[in-house]
Amino acid sequence: MIRAGLSRPVLSAMLFGAGAGMLAGLACGGGSGDDARPAVLAHIGHDVAAPAFATLHERAGALVAALEPLCAGPDATTLAAAQAAWSEERDAWSRVLPFGFGPLPPELNALDFWPVRVDTVETAVAGAPAAADAGYLGGLGVSAKGMPALEYLLWGEDPGAALTAFQSEDGARRCGYARALAVDIEARTDALATAWASEYADALATAGTGSAAYPSLKAGVDEVINKSIDACLTMVKGKLDNPLGNLSGAAEDPSLMESRFSGRTRADLQANLAGVWAVYHGADLDAPAAGISVLVAALDPALDERVRAQYARTVEVLVAVPEPLTEALVADRTAVQLARDELDTFRRLLKLDVASTLGVTLALSDNDGD
Amino acid sequence: MSIRADDGHGALSRLLRALLAPVDAAGLHAFRIAFGLLMFAGTVRFAARGWIHQLYVDPTFHFHYWGFGWLAPLPEAGMIAVFVALGALSLLVAAGVCYRPAIALFFVLFTYVELLDKATYLNHYYFVSVVALLMIVLPLGRRVAVAPAWALWALRLQVGLVYFFAGLAKLRPDWLLHAQPLRLWLAARADFPLIGGLLRRPEAAHLMSWGGAAFDLSVPFLLLHPRTRPFAYAGVLVFHGLTGALFPAIGMFPWLMAAAALVFFPPDWPRRLWCRLSPRTCPMAPVLSASSFPARPLLLGLLALHFAVQLTLPLRRFAYPGDTAWTEEGYRFAWQVMLVEKVGSVVYRVRDPVSGRQRLVDPEPTLTAQQAKQMAFQPDMVLEYAHHIAAENPGAEVRADVFVTYNGRPAARLVDPDVDLAREVDGLGPRPWILPAPPRP
Q1: In the predicted model, is pLDDT for residue A118 greater than 60?
Q2: Is A247 helix (H, G, I), strand (E, B) or coil?
Q3: For this UniProt entry, which segments traverse the membrane (chain B) (predicted)?
C-alpha cells in the first residue's frame, strides 16, 4: 500500500513542501505593492506640508516688506497694509498646525506664544535700541516675540491705539521693534520651509524605505494622524475650552483667546481646521482624495463619509459664530460652545474611529498642558 | 499524613495511581530551566527598556485592583531592588538551586509588581504568576531525578487551560463572523515582508480568526496524543512565531508559550534528545521504581483548589450581563487573549453642587501613556479615577464622557453620562452605569 510506504520524514517533507508552496502562492497573490500608504505620505509631505511651509515663509517676507512703509510713514494706510500682511501670515501659520513634528517643535514658542503678555512686550519695546535687531531679540524670552507679540503692536488693545503709538514720539523705536519681530519670523519660517523642502517631506515620503525619521510606514502614518489629533485638541482645549472657562469653571475670558487684538480668532480656527482637512483629504479640495481619506475609505467607506459629514458640520457651525469671537464669547456663549462641541466630535472621530481603523498607535498629546 | 495509591480499586484509584507514578524528571527540569531563563531575560528586558521607572516610579497615580488599594510601589531604590531580586531569583530557579524558596519569593515579588497597577495587566504576566505559584509545590529542585506524574500533569493542565479558554473566548460573533479585531490589526501590517499585501484582505483575517480559534481549542488535545504531538508542536511554533512577528507588542508571550508547551512531550524528552544528538555523553536514565509516590491530602487539596479557581475565573464572565468584551467585567484573569481593539477618550465633568459651577478634567496629563490608553476604555479604571477626582474635590459630583471604539464599531458612549461616579462604589458585581455595547452597523 502506498500509505504504508510513507515514512514520517517523507510525510514531514510533503507537509513542509505543501506549506511552503501555499506560502509562495499567497505571496504571489498578495504583494505589498497595493499599499496606498507610501503615496499618501508622499502627498502629505510634498504636496501639503512643504507648500504650506513655503507659503508661510513667502508671506513672512511680505510681512517684513509691509513693515518698511509703516515705519517710514505710519498712517492708517500703511498700518492697514501691515495688518493685512500679518493676517495673511497668520492664516498660513494656522494651516501648518497639524505639522507640529519634524523641524517645527523647537520653533513653536518663538513663533506663537500666546496669550500675549502685554507688559512683557511693552518692556521689550521700551528697552529696545533705536534699530532693534536679531541680537536684541536673542536676549529676550519667547513671550516678547513671535506673531502674537507683533499682532499686539499692530493692533493694540483698543481701536486706534496702535496707530497712535506708532505716531508718537517713541513710535520709531516701537516700529523698529515690530520690524525686528517680523524679520525674526521671516528667518524662522525660512528655516522651516527649507527643512521641509530639502529633507522632511522626503523623510515622510520614504517612511519604511530608508527614512531616517520613520523606520516603518506605520510610524509615518502614526505621526501624521497623531499630530492632526493634537491639532484638533489644541483647537478644542487650548483655543476654546480655556476662554470658555470649561477647564476652570470660571466665567468666559476673552483675554485667553488667540488673535484677540486682530479679531480673527475664528479665522485662525477655520484655517487650523482647513490645515487638518488638507492632511485628511489632500492638497486640492476639488480633486479626488489623496490624503488619509484614501486609507480610511479603502477599509471603511462609511467612516470616511462620517468624517466628511462631521467636517462639513463643524465648518458650518464655526462659520455661524460671528467674528470677533472675543465678543461672541460673552454675547453668545452657546454658539461658541456649540462650535467647540462639534470640533471635539471631529477630534474624537480622528482619535477613536480613524486611528482604530488604521491601527494607529496613539501618542499622548504634546500640548496637554494647554 | 499520606494515602497510598493502591488503597482501593475503581477509576479514582487508577487515576490516583497514574498521578503518583514515578516519571523521569528531565522534562520538568527542562521546563524549570526554560522558565527561569525566560524570566531572567524578561526582567533584564523590562529594566533595559526603562519600564521600572516608566511604570512604577514616575507615575503619580496608580490604578488598583479591587481589594488591593493598599498596595503601593516602593520608592525608586526599592523598585530597582525588587527587579534585581527577580533577576537573581530567576537564575536560581533556572539552576534549581535553593529552588523552593527561590520560586516562592519570585512568585511573591512578581505578583506584587503585577498587582501595583491595573494598567499594566497582561495575560502572560498573569500566566507567569499562576505558573510560579504552581511551581512552588512542584518537586523541581536540581537533585530530583524522579518526580510524581502529577507534577507533569499539573503543568499540562495549566497550559492546556490557557489555550482552551483562549479558544473558548474566541467563539463570539466579532471573532468568527466579522474577523475582528484581526481585520483591523492585519490591515495595518500591509508592509509585512512577503505576505503583507495578503494581510490587507478580509479573507486573510477570516482565515486567521477561524484558524486561531481552532488552534487554541484543539492544541492541548493534539499535544497530548503521541501521533499528533510533533505536528501540534510545530503548529505551536508557527502560531506563536507568526503572532510574535505580526504583533511585536505581545513581547515575551510567544516564547513563554512555546517553552510551556514542551511539558506535553514525554517526561524524558530532554534525555532522549540529548542521547540522539550526543550518544557518547548520553546521561543514564533514572531508575523508576514500581511503587508510587505517596499521596499527600493537603497537597492534593491545594492543587484541587488551585484548578477549581483556574476553572472558575475564566467562566465568571458568563455571570455578568451584556458583552463582557465591551464591559470588561470578568475580563481579566480569564485568558481573553487578543479579542478586542479598543480606543477610548475620557473627559470628566466635575460639578460643585453648591455653586453649580462645572469644569472639565482631562485625566491624560496626570497619567502615563499606558495608563491613559488603558483607562480610556476600562470602566473600573474610569470609576477609580473619578473617585480620585472626588477625593481632591470633596463633595463634588463627577460624571464622565467616555467614548470608545470597539472592534471597528463607530465610537459610542461607554458610561452613562448622567451617573455621578463619585457616588458609585466599586466591587465585583455588575456595574449598571456601563452602557450596552453598540451594535455592529
Answers
A1: yes
A2: coil
A3: 29-48, 80-113, 125-144, 150-169, 231-264
What H or E segment, with its residue span, contains residue B187?
A: helix B182-187
Interface test with A, best of B360, B366, B404, B414 (most A CBs within 10 A): B360
Does residue B378 sit in helix, strand or coil? coil
Same domain, B161 and B129: yes
- For the record, the C-alpha cell of B385 comes out as 479615577
Domain of B75, in residue numbers: 10-169+226-234+251-319
* Distance separating alpha carbons of residues B334 and B113, to the nearest angstrom: 19
pLDDT averaged over every residue in chain B = 92
DSSP output for B111-150: HHHHHT-GGG--HHHHHHHHHHHHHHHS---TT--EEEHH
C-alpha cell at A179: 520690524
Angle at B368 between CA B364 and CA B372, to 5 degrees: 45
Buried residues in B151-179 as b, exposed as e (16+ CB within 10 A): bbbbbbbbbbbbbbbbbbbbebebbeebb
Paired strand residues for B348:
B361, B400
Q: What is the pLDDT of residues B54-78, one digit of tens each?
A: 999 999 999 999 999 999 999 999 9
Amino acid of residue A113 = F
Q: Which residues of A touch B200 (CB under 8 A)?
A: 30, 34-35
Q: Which CATH superfamily is domain A36-213 in?
A: M75 peptidase, HXXE motif (1.20.1420.20)
Is B242 an interface residue toward A (CB < 8 Å)? Answer: no
Cell of B166: 483562549
CATH architecture of A216-370: Up-down Bundle (1.20)
- Whether residue B190 and residue A353 make contact (CB cut-off 8 A), yes or no, is no
Distance from CA of B200 to the nearest CA of A (A): 9
ipTM, interface predicted TM-score of the complex: 0.83
